[in-house]
Structures are given as C-alpha cells and as structure tokens.
Amino acid sequence: MSFLIDPPLLYAAGRTTAALPPERATAATAATAVVFLGTSISLYLDRPWTTPIWRLCRARSGRDWMLNSGVLRFEHRSPGRRTHAVSAAIFATYPLWFWLGYRRSHRLRT
After folding, report:
1. Where are the chain's structural domains?
2. pLDDT score recorded for residue 71
3. Alpha-carbon dihedral 36, 41, 42, 44, rounded to 10 degrees
4. DSSP state letter for 4
5. What Rg value do the Cα atoms of the chain yield, rounded?
6. pLDDT tens, 26-76?
7. Which pLDDT value is given to residue 108?
8. Sign of the dihedral through C-alpha 48, 67, 71, 98
9. Which end of the chain is more exposed for a tag (fewer CB within 10 A), N or C?
10. Sign of torsion over alpha carbons 54, 38, 15, 25
11. Which long-range contacts (CB under 8 A, 24 or more apart) does 58-67 make?
12. Number of Cβ atoms within 10 Å of the Cβ of 75
C-alpha cells in the first residue's frame, strides 16, 4: 500500500463492493477500511510486522514505501511536521476514494 496506489485501489474496492448484496457489502466495507487503514498507517509508522511488505516492494522502510513508492524521493527517515500533516490528510481521504468508487458503480446499476 502506498499513497500513490491506495486511492485507485480503494476506488476499485468501492466499485466491487457496490456489486455485492447489501448484507455482504457492509462486511466488505468494514474489512476494506480495516485492511487499508491498518496496513497503510502501520507502514507509515514503520511497525515491525510490515517489514515483509516494504521489503517485497524494494523500499527502505514502510514510510519510504508510503511516501515514495519507488518513484518519488521525499525524505522518509525523519520527515518534518508538514510531511506528517500532509500524510494525515491523505489518510483522511481514504474513505472518500472508497465512497466515490461505490457511488459510481451504484449509479451505473440504477
């Protein structure tokens, strides 16, 4: 998970969830939120259990993967307040991306 790929993945998850029956969509929505936020925030905070994930992505740390995704070059070892604030704002948009995908798929069905 990274700031570059999470929004499109969340959008796609929302579209997929909209195709489920309502009783399954609720559980899928909750599971998506837990997995995305739990994993992404843990990566950003460099929690030890995320090491296999960021190593698989050839990053230097979980935060490096979240901020840079192997493409960018933001300071990840000791980011400043601004980086933390922007990261928190991006995390706050995660439900929006899911909702946009859900809404788009739901509108196409009706």
Report:
1. 6-109
2. 80
3. 130
4. T
5. 15
6. 999 999 999 999 999 999 999 999 999 999 999 999 999 999 987 877 778
7. 64
8. positive
9. C
10. positive
11. 65/1, 65/2, 66/1, 66/2, 66/3, 66/40, 67/2, 67/3
12. 12
Q: What are 49's two structure tokens? A: 């259990």
Higher-scoring residue by pLDDT: 75, 103: 103
Neighbours of 19 (CB within 10 A): 14
> In whole angstroms, what is the distance from residue 27 CA to residue 44 CA?
26
What tens digit of pLDDT does each residue of 12-26 get? Answer: 999 999 999 988 999
**pLDDT (0 to 100) of residue 110:** 57
Burial class (CB in 10 A: 0-12, 13-18, 19+), 34: exposed
Please name the residue ranges forming H helices in 1-110: 6-18, 22-44, 51-56, 62-68, 81-92, 94-109
**pLDDT surpassing 90 at residue 77:** no
